[in-house]
Amino acid sequence: MFLRTLLQTASILPFLYTSASAQTACNNSPSLCNKAYNNITHLGTHDSPFLRNNSTSFSTSGNQYYDSVTQLDAGVRLLSAQVHKSNGTDGSTQWHLCHTSCDLLDAGTLSSWLGKIKGWMDNNPNDVVTVLLVNSDNASPAELGAEFQSSDIDQYAYTPSSSSAPQTWPTLQSLISNGTRLMTFVASLTPSSDFPYLMDEFTYVFENDFENEEPTEYSCNPDRPTSLTSPSQATESGRMFLMNHFLYSTQIFGIQSPNDTYVNVTNAQTGLGSLGEQIPKCTSVYSKPPTFVLVDFFNRGPAIVSVDTANGVTGAVGRKSVSTAAPDEPTSGVSRRQGSLLAVIVAVVVAVTFGV
Ligand SMILES: *[C@@H]1O[C@H](CO)[C@@H](O)[C@H](O)[C@H]1NC(C)=O
Ligand SMILES: *[C@@H]1O[C@H](CO)[C@@H](O)[C@H](O)[C@H]1NC(C)=O
Ligand SMILES: *[C@@H]1O[C@H](CO)[C@@H](O)[C@H](O)[C@H]1NC(C)=O
Ligand SMILES: *[C@@H]1O[C@H](CO)[C@@H](O)[C@H](O)[C@H]1NC(C)=O
Ligand SMILES: *[C@@H]1O[C@H](CO)[C@@H](O)[C@H](O)[C@H]1NC(C)=O
Ligand SMILES: *[C@@H]1O[C@H](CO)[C@@H](O)[C@H](O)[C@H]1NC(C)=O
Ligand SMILES: *[C@@H]1O[C@H](CO)[C@@H](O)[C@H](O)[C@H]1NC(C)=O
């Protein structure tokens, strides 16, 4: 009897194993495991670490209400940031994540931020994450690579198989099985064989115009790299499409800040200039959905709904929910004004420095 039970158990074990692995989700859904990295749509946060919350006195320069780890928990799989040169208190060079200028909004060192992403990846072994860095002060591969090494995230880094855009990227499952779950793009840098995982963004990716102030201005046409002048050229180049989808507001002195008053439509499924209507427009231009969509205030909308639709994903698993509302801001507006005042001061300094 015991032996028979054991045999029965043993005979169903392979079935259990198969069914368990078939149910394993990659980037929150089993249906994505066998799709190529470039055949799915990844939700990206524009200026991921630049917060408009109480930690920045609700700075009007902030692009997100919730931090990068909360973004990952909620299903975001591409995080973008600007890297700037900054002086340490001892006068040493440091690489910080700053919005336009480190005097305006300084979100700390690149290595500290990468360390938080690495910690999240340790705890989420079936997820492929993309980091997109804007190399504002031309950090060298060695300087950026040192930050990846000190945060230990380099152990997850994927190295491309080709120095030009491949037509086919690995599936999520093969990236996961190989332990190379971190994709890193930098705009821009000269590739180095010492840090081969630091990919020059515009070698592999093209973007539409990101300078939009009205919900009628979005275009699907390639804008960068400037060598691409038509959608067909972009497709033939093999590059992946990153669809910028956010609005700026122009403040006094021409300072741009993210438009938060319209973002509930910008990131919604329907409405003028909504993500849910813009993705299908670009999908019909390129005969496939964008590989990445980049948004401000990702929790509004919420943007993930339109990305799930693009991926044909229903019943995503393993996400932590986050409020779709804007967080409460001080009603007096005192804290928020500090951010605007700082922006004005920086604008004045810039104007004096450049004589404009
Ligand atoms: C990726 O998509 C192309 C068509 O767009 C298809 O031919 C190919 O089989 C897909 N590959 C994977 C692994 O998803
Ligand atoms: C920000 O809000 C959190 C949660 O409400 C609170 O714990 C924290 O003390 C606040 N921090 C600041 C700097 O106000
Ligand atoms: C604001 O962001 C900081 C930094 O990520 C975080 O520690 C804090 O909890 C956030 N505040 C709220 C109210 O979420
Ligand atoms: C860093 O310090 C050097 C030397 O004091 C100075 O010339 C430079 O402007 C400083 N850079 C920044 C970004 O503060
Ligand atoms: C997985 O790693 C092996 C050994 O490094 C390599 O040959 C293979 O190309 C990798 N596969 C993918 C999909 O990256
Ligand atoms: C945001 O965009 C909407 C739509 O164009 C506009 O009505 C609104 O004034 C903008 N908000 C700000 C703060 O500029
Ligand atoms: C967006 O917010 C405005 C102002 O609160 C509101 O009037 C409008 O109905 C909201 N739209 C959507 C799609 O939620």
From TrEMBL:
Pfam families: PI-PLC_X. Residues 213-234 are annotated as: Disordered. InterPro entries: PI-PLC_domain (IPR051057), PLC-like_Pdiesterase_TIM-brl (IPR017946). GO terms for molecular function: phosphoric diester hydrolase activity. Keywords: Signal. GO terms for biological process: lipid metabolic process. This is PLC-like phosphodiesterase. It comes from Zopfia rhizophila CBS 207.26.
